[in-house]
Amino acid sequence: MKTRTYLFLMAAAILIPVALAFWIGLSMLLDWERESRISSVKEMARATAFQIDREIAAAESSLRGIAHSESLRSSDYARLHRWASSINEGNLWSWTVLADQEGRGLFNTLVPFGTPLPSTTGAWAAEVTPERGTRVSGYFVGTMAQRPTVSVDVPAVVGPGKHYIVSRVFDVRHFARILNHDALGRDWVVGIFDAAGTTLVRNRHAGSTVGKPMRPDFLAATRATSSGVFRHTTHDGAEVYGVFTRSQTSNWTVVIGVPVAEIEAAARTATLYAALALMLLMGLALAVAAFLGNKLEAALRHAAAAARSLGQRALPRPAPTRVEEVDALLSGLHHTSEALARESSVRQALQNEREQLLLSEQHARKLAEGQSRAKDNFLAMLGHELRNPLAAISGAMAVLDMPAIKPEVAANAREISRRQMRHLTRIVDDLLDVQRILSGKIVLQHTRVDLADILRSCCAAKALVDAGNHQWSVEVEEVWVEGDRTRLEQIIDNLLHNAIKYTPAGGRIAVRGYRVAGRAVVEVSDTGVGIAPELLPVIFDVLVQGPTSIDRAQGGLGLGLALVKQLASLHGGTVHVQSEGQGRGSTFTVSFPACPAPEVSAPAADAGGEAAASAA
Length: 616
What we know:
Beta-Lactamase; Heat Shock Protein 90; 3 domains; 7-stranded mixed sheet; 6-stranded antiparallel sheet
């Protein structure tokens, strides 16, 4: 047989099993595509449940702020009413209710403070106790609002055996906006159901379904597991895949119904395209086999002619055949030496590469060991930094528990507790800020701010806390930057805190703010302990500390300067430090891109003056 015939047989031997496997794969693709579509709907249901959990968590957080407020402990209901009203301001679908432990309402932000409330109690109050914690209710019709609602109830302990109930009540339409997004199909049915299976929100026919229970088979399917898929027929007579997931926070169930035809049609379309692609590829493969067969047959004939010429002691005339094997047969020996030379150079390159890899591995191991030591040091420092204030707080609490304690001793114990609590808060805030920055979750609120105003404010606050232990020098000029005022204050505050902490009493702290070459520059200088030369290259890395005393009186976690560097970078700025060595002080310089001062129109200024005059 000819070479071309062998090529066709080889192509057939390859393509026939491939075609059979492909047809099997098509059926698997049909199932996979169906499961893929359903999986995407599952992710959407989980995302919807997550949004619900986030709304409930936000409500619980605001309620806990009220529950732990001093106004609640002192029964200042009018102030609490104003606070709760400000929290709900701008939200038409939620309000706050304060009730006693029997469930009797004390105020409701739906109505002005002092408005008489219905004198009602209920078994629901027994479910909101300090032992049970936060409660997320199911569907009910509000007594004051007279509309479908749900609530988040938080117990607020104010004394032994006494507690209040702070509730955030939501109109169920508050959660309807979660269902309004472009990812939902036009014919999809989406609903949210409470723990008892009562409909809270539905994107279609909501008026006739809210407050109605689930179908029994539907309820049984959602209670058997926390998430899943079942096929059923809706009230509208449409056959759908019901994809559901249950929230772990509220025990509510999110159900997304997707028409079966939509799921199946997409899967069949994908399968049809795959089959057409198979047929096209097989036809192309046969055409390529025929074309290459002709080329290979011609090349072999040329090689046979060259062999016959060689047998007749005639020099073969080399001619390109466009077949690598035949051309290599005619000219292979000529290139053998070149191949050996190339092999030698390749071996040398591989040897060099192995040496570089070995050096890289050694460097990586040293880096990993250094990071491991830094982690161990950080954990040890964190334990000390948390243990010391906790011990002080524990001791102060023990003093407060002593009988017949003197007022001045009690006041001193409370001041110790407050001071140590502020220290703990700063440690936790630094840890959270570093985590947010490293994970890319921090969001800046950019506005035009006067850096001089920030510097004066921060210096005044720090000088007040410093209580005259250091000599302060503040020279600033007006310079505007585009940034987040809170984070800029945090940068300045960390630099000032660092200067105070590492400058002995009687030392000098100098702060300058000026504009140069289109940059806003801040310099914080001190006459403190200075920085060792080996620490200068890594002083802004996470977990790096300056020198501390044996008793750790000036200790810390090494996060302050790392926060300064990261926050400055987020503002497009830079930070660097200069120090002539230990005991010779240091100077930290931060620069940001400057921007023009905001323009203030004359009418606006006049209006502001009139408002100030009227307020006076």
